Amino acid sequence: MAGKRRSGLANDRRAYGSAIYCPITYIIMYNGNTNTSGNAPIDGSSPYGSGLTVTVLGNSGSPMLEKTGFAFSGWNTAANGTGISYNQGNTFIINANRTLYAQWTLLPTYTVTYDGNTSTSGNTPTDGSSPYISGSTVTVLGNSGSPVLEKTGYTFAGWNSASDGSGTDYLPTDTFTINADTTLYAQWILITYTVTYNGNTSTSGNTPTDSSSPYVSGSTVTVLGNSGSPVLEKNGYTFTSWNTEANGTGTDYLPTDTFTINADTILYAQWTLVTYTVTYDGNTNTSGNAPTDPSSAYISSSTVTVLGNSGSPVLEKTGYTFARWNTAFDGTGTSYIQGNTFTINADTTLYAQWTPVSPPPSTPTALFGVGGNQAAYILFTQVGTVTNYEYSTDNGATFLAFDPAQIYSPVEINYLSSDGLTRLTNGTVYTVKLKAVNSNGSSVESASVDVTPTITSLVSSSRIIYLDANNSSSYPGAGTTWTNLDSAGAYSATLNGSPTFDIITDPGNKYFEFNQGALTGQFAQINQAAAINPVVNSPFTIQMWVKINNIGSQGSLVSKVFGAPSYDGYALGYRTDNTLQLHENGASQVNYFTSVTGVLSSGWALYTANVQFGSGGGRKNKIFVNGRQVVNSTSNESGVPSPTQNMTFPTGFYGEGECSIGQFYYYNTELTPEQIIQNYDATKPRYI
Question: What is the DSSP letter of 57?
C-alpha cells in the first residue's frame, strides 16, 4: 500500500496519534558470473525477513547455468571466490541483501591423433577441433588426409583404438566421448575377390559354394560343377555350363575350367530347354491303331491331357474291352482315362489296358424262405461277386433293387417289389425270386420260393438260459444278480465291477454297458455247471445282442476258457482286423475259426455261435451276425475242456470287451439258420 493514503486510517491516526511500523526485509540474488548460457536460479522465498534462515539453491535455473570449458562448483559471496562459499542445501542467517556468484572450475582437455598404422603412402587426417574438453563428443574423421592414406594390397577399413585392431572399432562419422588423449589407428583389410554362383532362374536346388572364396587378387580360380546339395534344377531345362553374364553373352565356363581373378565374379547357370514325348501303345491289341498326340513333344513340366482310344480305327482286342491307359504294360504303374492330366518330366509310354468281357453274375440258387413280422428272409447260395440283389414278391412280374444294397444271404424283404412302399402282410403267401447284380448286369432270375410273413417269437425249446436287461423280472434295475428267466432261475449271472445299467439312452431298450472308456473289470459271470459244460459231439448255441463300442480293438464277447498254459475251453471274440474268431480247445491250442473281415459294426447286432467239440453228426462250428453266416468250419478237437471254468461275458480269452449287452441266450442244441433268423426278427425292433 506504499504511496497510497486511506482517509479512514488518517482519521484514526489523528484520533489516536499512533505510529505504523513496516518489517525490514532483504533480497537474495544468484549471479551466473561469466556463464556462457543458461539462467541463474530465482529464490521464490525472497525477500526474507531480517534474521531468517536462507537455504542455498543449486544450479537449478531453466535451463541451468553453463560455461564453456568449465564445470559449476558452487556459489560464493564474491565473484572472484574470496568470500564465503556455499553449496546447494547450505543455510545462513540473512541480515542484508545478498548476491551469490556462480563458481567455475576449468575442465581438462584431451587430444585426438590419427595414425596411418603401416600405411605405405598418404597422410593422416588432422582433427581441427582437437584438443577436446573432457567429456566432449568426438566425431571420427574418414581417411581424409591429403593425399589419403594407402597401403599396397590392402583397403582402408576404418580406425581402431589399438594398432592391432583389438580395441574399439570406429567408422567415419562414428562418435565417442573423450576422457583421455586418444590415438586412432588405421585398419587395413587384404584386398580379395569373391566367386559367387547364381542359379539364374533355377526352380529348385542350391548353388555350389566355393570354399576357397574370397581369393587374393591375381589368384587362379577352378570353376565348380553343378554340385550344390541338392543340385540346381530348372523345370523343363537341363544345366549346361556357367557364364559371366546371366544371358550367356559373357565368358562361358565348364566345370574344372580356370581363370585369374581380379574382381568380384558371379557365374550364372546356363540352361537348355528339355522336351519329352508321349507315345500310346496298343499292348497286345488285335486290331486298330493307337492314337497319336499332336502336341508331343512337350516341354518338361508341361501338362499332358490323356487321349481316349481314338486311333483310326480304334484299338480292339478280341474277348476284351478297352479300359484305360497305364504307364506300365502290366498295369502296375499309374492309370489314366481319357481327359486325365499329368505333368510330364520324362519320355512316357501309355499302354492300353484290357478288361476281359465278363458275363453277369451267376443266379442265386437253393432259395429258402423264412417268414418274419411283415418281412421275408431269403436264404440262398451265391457264386461270385455281387454288388446288390433285385427281388420280386410277385413271382417275377416286377423286380426291385434293395436300397440300401444287400449283398449277403439272407436278404430281408420288407416291401412289395411292385412299388417299394407297401409293407408285406402277415399271413399272405408271397412267391419270391432273386437276381444277382454286379457291374456287368443282372443274373437270370432265380427259381421261386414261397414265403409267408408271420409274427415271430423267441425259440424257447432247449433254451436253458435267458437273460433280458429290459425285463424287470430278469433285472429289476439294481443289484448284482442278472436273473435267468429259464431253468427256474438257475445259471443266473453275477454282475462284477458295477457295469452301467442304461435306462436313459433308449428307454424302450434297457441294457448294460461294460468297460466303457477307461473303466475296466466289468463283466457278467455264470458259474460252471454240468448243463453248460461242453460234451463231445453235443452242440450248443449262444446268442447275445451286443453293441461293440471299440471297433478296431480286440475284446471278448463270451468266454469259458482257462488261462495259460492250457487255454482250455471256448471263447467268441472280436479282433482288430474287424473279424470274429471262435477259440476252441479241449486237448490242444490250435483250434481257431476266423470269420471274413468287415463283419463288425458299431451298431447293435445279434451274434450267434453254434459250437461243438468233435465232428460227430457232420456238424460244424458256425458264427452268425444277424442271421448272416460268417464262419462254417468243422472242429478237429476231439477232447472236451475241463468243466470247472466259469462262463464270463464280455471278458475272457480275447481280453475285456467294451460292449453294451441287452440279451443273452444259451441253448443246449444247435439252432438252425431258420431259428436264428426267427430270434433275430422277434427281437430286432428293440435294437435296430
Answer: P
Q: Residue 320 phi/psi, 5° resolution?
A: -135, 160
Residue 452 confidence (pLDDT) above 70: yes
For residue range 136-146, list pLDDT tens digits in order.
999 999 999 99
Q: Considering the chain, what is the average pLDDT of its residues? A: 92
The string of DSSP codes covering 28-51 is: EEEE-SS-SBS-----TT-SEETT
Taking the C-alpha atoms of residue 647 and residue 529, their distance in angstroms, rounded to an integer, is 10
User: What is d(CA 339, CA 331) in angstroms, rounded to the nearest whole number?
Assistant: 19
CB neighbour list of residue 223: distance below 8 Å, 6 or more residues apart: 242, 253, 254, 255, 256, 257, 258, 259, 267
Q: Is 44 left (phi over 0), alpha (psi -120 to 50) or beta?
A: alpha
The residue behind cell 463231445 is 536
Q: What is the pLDDT of residues 588-637, one digit of tens each?
A: 666 889 998 889 989 999 999 999 987 766 778 999 999 999 999 887 77
**What is the CB neighbour count within 10 angstroms for residue 685?**
10
Beta strands 523-526 and 621-625 are unpaired
Report the C-alpha gap between 169 and 166 in whole angstroms.
8
Nearest one of 281, 359, 284, 353 to 318, comparing CA atoms = 284
Return the C-alpha cell found at 597: 473281415
User: What are the C-alpha distances in Å from 243 to residues 204, 257, 261, 274?
Assistant: 19, 12, 15, 20
The answer to whether residues 670 and 541 touch, using CB atoms and an 8 Å cutoff, is yes
Let me know: does 365 contact 381? Beta carbons within 8 Å.
yes
The SS3 call for residue 447 is coil
How far, in Å, are 100, 479, 593, 631, 633 from residue 620 at the CA level? 126, 39, 11, 9, 5
As a whole number of angstroms, the distance between CA 278 and CA 348 comes to 5
> Three cell numbers at 63?
535451463
DSSP, res 676: H
